[in-house]
Amino acid sequence: MPRKEEQRVQVRAAKLKPKPDLLPSGAWRCRAMVNGEKIVVLGKSPEEAHAKVIALKAGLVRDIGLEAEARRGNLSLADAIESYITARENVLSPTTINGYREIKRNRFPSLMEKTVSKISPSDLQEAVNEDACKVSAKTIKNALGLVVPVISEYKDISTKRIRLPQRKRIEHSYLDAQGMIELFEAIQGETVELPILLAVWLGMRRSEIMGLCWDCIDFEAGTIKVARTYVKSKDKGYVLRDEMKTEAARRTLECPGYILEKLKSYPGSREGRIFHFHPNTIYKVMKRICDQYGIDFVGVHGLRHTNASVMLSLGIMDKVAMARGGWSTDVTMKQIYQHVFASDRAAAGGKVNTFFETIAQGIVPGGASQPEP
């Protein structure tokens, strides 16, 4: 192209100033018309996104890769989700990536093959309605938490009028004191004794237990450092990761002598991971033991709920309980993990009844102020 003609093209292009907008993902998006076709271009900065659009509109760039990027709104939702994951693979945890791919496989089947640029709020509502009878409101909300940002990278979509199914509070199973006594007795000498103790006594997650390495055990200080997880990988196997679920999950716990002694006598080398069986083994063996001895089976994660409930019953301060359990906020700990033991409810009921019985007898309870005349 002659230099003067190129300069004229650049002047025309400079007059075309589509305004980039910031997406929830952190990318910048520019939308424009090129040869009668609506395009969407993404960039790491507003300047980059704007420059790509200008180059396309001015005909200065004809690279097929850039044009393919500009037309990605023609992708199916499933492909767009995969693209979304790939672009963030280095900053997302393996657990999050696996969760995203599970959503892609199992949620909103009527949407997954639909072209992203053609998905409307009514399509989203219809997909929500279809899944409402299959899964919980929380599962649907989590799925929308991925799908909406993905669609937003290619078009504006409002979710203000989308109605979610009413959320039903489900009380997770946990063990009471008698159940804990029975479980402690039944697991002695079993393969999964230590993992179960770490879950119920120290509140560790299964992935944290399976990722526990010998260099995390300080026998002299009597501590366990929770610093790694053992999670599913892309090929559906498992891999040891330094990344934690949240930064709050990275913590150091005081380890009781009862568990330290069992660790000292645990067979195997003192290098690498401590437990080398499959993560599902904890669940399977625990289920067999509970069935055999008539113990309530609460699942491996139910042991973490039990630990949180013990801390509540003992009056452990919220901040301390959060630090021990590795929770980022007290909302999750209080609303999901902490449960009130029946014995605590009974004790509270007894105290309240005693208070009012004295009132009924005309006696001012100890510590209560006298009513003003």
Structure description:
- The relative contact order is 0.08.
- The protein is built from 17 helices and 8 strands.
- The C terminus is likely disordered.
- It is mainly alpha-helical and 373 residues long.
- α4 packs antiparallel against α5 and α10 runs parallel beside α14.
- β6 and β7 form a beta hairpin.
- The longest helix is centred in the C-terminal third of the chain and has 19 residues.
- Helices cover 50% and strands 9% of the residues.
- Strands 1-2-3 form a 3-stranded antiparallel β-sheet.
SSE layout and pairing:
Elements (H helix, E strand, L loop, with lengths): L2 H13 L5 E2 L5 E7 L2 E7 L2 H13 L5 H7 L6 H11 L6 H13 L2 H4 L8 H12 L4 H16 L24 H10 L6 H10 L3 H5 L6 E2 L4 E4 L2 E4 L5 E4 L9 E4 L2 H8 L15 H14 L5 H15 L4 H8 L4 H8 L4 H19 L13
Antiparallel strand pairs: 1-2, 2-3, 4-5, 5-8, 6-7
